[in-house]
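Revision sheet: C-alpha cells.
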Amino acid sequence: MDQPPANIVDLYKAQGWNNEASIKADIAAGGWKSKVQAPTPGFSNTSTSGAGFTSTDPAQTIQAAIDALKKANEPAVASYQARIPEVQSAYTQARSQLQASQPSLEQKYQNLLDKIKGQQTADVAAQTNITAGELGKRGLTGSSTLAQQEIQNAISPLNVKYTGLTQETGLAQTDAMRELQNQIANLTPQEQADIFSINQAIGQLQSGAGQAGMTAGLNLYGTNLSAQQAAEQAKADAAQQEIENALAKQELNQPQFATASSGSGIYAIDPNTGKLISTIKGVQNQLGSDPLGLGIGT
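Predicted:
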C-alpha cells in the first residue's frame, strides 16, 4: 500500500492522536504505515478464540470499538455516578435545615404577637388613667356614663391600631409558614431534576460511545479489509512474478537455433555443433517434447 487509506485520520484518532497538525506531519513522514499495521487500543486485527473478533467481521469490529470507547468513558461515568449520592445528601441536609427552622419561625411571630398585645394593654391602661384624671378634674367620676363614654373614645383608636397590627402580624406569620413549606416541598422536584440531569449526562456518554464506536468500528473494518485485500494482491503479484521469472530463466537456458528452408522442409542449425537438424520433428527430438516443462506432449 503506497498511499494512506481515506480514513487514515480516523485511525490516528482511534490510536490516541488528537492534534491535527501532528497527524498531518506524521502522515507526510510516512508514519501512517505503522498506524495502519498497528492494532488500535482496545481492538485486535487478528482472529482470537472466545471474545476475540476477526478483522473482516464488521459486527465484531464495531462492538470492539464500542467497548473500547465505553471503557475510555468509564472515569467520567464513574465521576457522574459519584455525584448522585452527593446531590442527595445536599438536598437531605437542606430539607432538614428548613424543617428545623419552622419552630423558631413560629416562635418569632408568636413573640411579636405577644409584644403587640402587651403594648396594647399598656397603652390602653395609660390612656384610661389619663382620661379618667382629666374627667375627675371636671367632677366626673369613672362610674358615670359620660365618663365611660369619654374613656372609650380615648382608647378606641389605640385598640383599632393594635388590632390592625395583630392581624397584619398574623397574616405575615401565615405567609412565612407557607413559604417555608413551599421551599421544603420544592426541594424534591429540584433534587429529582438534578439527578435526572446527571443520569442524562451518563446516558449521553454511553450512547455517544455507541455512535462513535460504530463509526470508528466501520472505519477500522474498512482499513483492515483494505489492508487484507492489499496483502492478498501483493501475494498474487509475487506468485505471478515468480512464474514469469521461472519462464524467463528456462528460456535463457535453452540453446538458440538458426532456421533455414530447403524445398518443403524446415531446418535448424545448432550453433554449438554447427549440425543441421532437419524438420520440426528433429528439433523436438533434440530438445525433447516439453522443453519448457509445461506438461505439453508431442
